[in-house]
Amino acid sequence: MNIKETDGKAIFKKEGIRIPMGFEVFTVAEAVQRFRALGSSAVIKPIGIKGRGKRGLVSFVSSEDEAADASARMLGLNVDGHVVDSLIIEERVDASKEYYFAFSLDFSSAKAVAIAGNGGINVEDGKASLERHYFDLDDGFGVEEAHRLIEAAGIAEREEAGRLIMGIYKIFRDYGAETVEINPAGVDRSGKLIALDAVISVDSTQIRTNEVKDGIEARMWKKGWSYVDIGGDIGLVCSGAGLAMATLDMISMAGGKPANFLDLAQVDGDGLYEACCILSERGSMKAMLVNLFAGLNRCDEMAEGVRRFVEDRKPGFKIVVRMAGNMVRSGENVLLRCGIRNFADLESAVKAAVDA
After folding, report:
1. Do 69 and 103 have their domain in common?
2. pTM for the complete prediction?
């Protein structure tokens, strides 16, 4: 199973790997709205399409009109049987260099392999020069091996590359992944590495290692939800990976400490109730921020999930809700029955959670 790029980048961010600020969008209007949030320059690309650069499906845009045109051109495309139903729009990074980093299982040798070298689309057609280091999974991969690989690959940014390689190795190990790949990692204007793509492939029957098989993460993932613990004190429940990533960034910029990344996608009221119950068992939270956008689902049904959670569990932390979309007025009435008001804008909701 390939983890969605937006979810993969959230996992990267947890491990200290820099990623561009970005959003997942499903409509042209959303793309234009998110372009305004990003500023004067952005990149738009479809999720889950291999070789999208060579297919002309990566667009650099500098205006709202360009963002609208690019997203309208891509949404609904049928590429090798995959219909593009969502896009990533993220800040543009003008990279002076591009590198490739990966860990993967090599089934022919029954070993794992660490890979580093020049990145970009040339890797996809085998033209790039890559260095490989094979190792036994039981022996692991350490800092010394990382430094030897970096030197062999001729990567000048040694300290940055060392931290990045050990970060993706930790993901590879902890998630029991078959592949963790960054293509490319760019060197930005400050000389630091930033992951411009994220590929994490896991065995769907073994999403987590034995150490966490009974924990919150495993329970979330068994439900099909993407969850990553980050360590802060503001719990986060979102219906969409891009929405979750944007909310994480806004909490951090407001001086708060997000506790987790959680993407429920198109969840119903029962699912939301269960997700809130599971997350509440994490402990050490001063607030839970529920940020929902209803498309195919309904705000009133999701609000019932929040109401049931509040009345059944009586949490000892503040519940902050920001919901928008289908049946929002009915949803607001449901929330009022348990003493919760819906915040119309995300900035106010974030402030209320941070100030809790």
Report:
1. no
2. 0.62
The C-alpha atoms of residue 201 and residue 3 are separated, in whole angstroms, by 6
Distance CA 283, CA 290 (A): 16
Domain that holds residue 290: 212-354
pLDDT, one tens digit per residue, over 93-108 is 999 999 999 999 988 8
* 176 and 136 in a common domain: yes
Q: What is the rounded CA–CA span in Å between residue 299 and residue 234? A: 22
| pLDDT, tens only, 156-196 | 999 999 999 999 999 999 888 899 999 999 999 888 999 99
Domain boundary among 161, 181, 202: 202
